[in-house]
Specification:
Layout: E1 6-15, E2 25-33, E3 37-41, H1 48-55, E4 63-68, E5 71-72, H2 78-88, E6 89-92, H3 104-113, H4 116-121, H5 126-133, H6 150-162, E7 168-172, H7 180-197, E8 200-204, E9 216-219
Parallel strand pairs: 3-8, 3-9, 6-7, 7-8
Antiparallel strand pairs: 1-2, 1-4, 4-5
Helix pairs in contact: 3-6, 5-6, 6-7
Bound molecules: adenosine-5'-triphosphate.
Adenosine-5'-triphosphate (ATP) is lined by residues 17, 24, 42, 44-50, 206.
Length: 221
Amino acid sequence: MNAPGVVVDAQDLRFRWPGAAADTVVLPALRIAAGEQVFLRGASGSGKSTLLSLLAGVLPPQAGRLQVLGQDLAMLSGPARDRLRADHLGVIFQQFNLLPWLSAHDNVTLALRFSTRRRAQAAEGEAGRLLGAMGLADALWRRPAAQLSVGQQQRVAAARALIGRPALILADEPTSALDEDARDAFMALLMQCCAEAGSALVFVSHDVRLAQRFSRVEVLG
Ligand SMILES: Nc1ncnc2c1ncn2[C@@H]1O[C@H](COP(=O)(O)OP(=O)(O)OP(=O)(O)O)[C@@H](O)[C@H]1O
């Protein structure tokens, strides 16, 4: 059983893509406490995105142990892992994955549609509060995502991940399309919003300069 306050607990975790000659992910141990912010680095191809997919329950673990919020992911069906993700995880993708025809605001509230628990955790007006906290001017909230700049879309994607205060936020290279100033502003806001929500953060990036913002850095591969 997981100790209270532990969000991720992995041991001897391995994953190999079909046809690969070697294991893609080899993770002897990883334990992340509630609210902890972790920078995950590793060479290109070292399996960072694959590990995030395992943590998100998109891929099933093949060997070893992986518990997320005390649930053993290897024991859960695909739909049960989907439920865990909808209820307790927020994911920020490199390409943001917003629905282009929906407004910024509706992209954020979309995350609530799939989870009663997330809905219950989100206060009235929470989407607007988060968009504001992420620095998106309210004149843009009703604009379709397709008409937002890359930096604006990224703020929407972060607000969508944060809504309903999920226990764990996974971010996969979300700053790669930004210039330095926009990147620094986004990082500060993301880390602050995660801290306020009490969400743990696992942040993957090639950009090692970002690592200094984190008290904990894990290296993969
Ligand atoms: N869907 C897939 N099917 C088969 N192999 C895959 C798949 N996705 C990734 N891989 C392989 O798994 C390995 C790790 O890929 P992954 O994207 O996890 O690495 P990464 O560390 O995130 O890389 P990068 O920093 O370049 O984004 C690579 O060799 C890649 O080719």
